[in-house]
Design a protein that fits this description.
Elements lengths: L4 E6 L5 H8 L9 H9 L3 E6 L2 E12 L2 E9 L8 H12 L4 E7 L3 H9 L3 E6 L8 E7 L6 H9 L3
Amino acid sequence: MTPAFERIRDAIAGDRAFMLALDGLVLGTPRSSAWYDEHLRAGHGLVAERDGVLAGFAIHHRHFFQRDFLALLIVEPWCRRSGVATTLLQAVEKRCTGADLFTSTNASNQTMRQALKKWGFRATGRIDNIDPGDPELVFVKKLSEGADFMSARQTKRGPT
């Protein structure tokens, strides 16, 4: 039986070692301690716990053209395909302040590409020359149907 899901919470500095270790399990170059420190200080991280054990994490920010961007979503191998990633994504979506959520993954990452499709993301661009021979594919998910970036900003800050 799959362990009971417990909670999603804000990531704290004490979670950095877990994040670095999990990051080291996925393809590509792991992010640096400084990268994690920056995002943890800014409140950009979420972690999932299952039976009191850290099960995965997400990093979300607005540094991508001032748009919501899911920078990382990684789940422990022992609890993949059990809803942890979906629950983390839903928590990120609740924190979004714009009409869209962007993310990216390498073209070679078929598992993530299938998950993004299942979660309602659609391809929107490609960036070459980050990882030679493995383009970065950019995806977007509409969070507010019919809204765009400018209308979302006007709603929050008044007309510009």
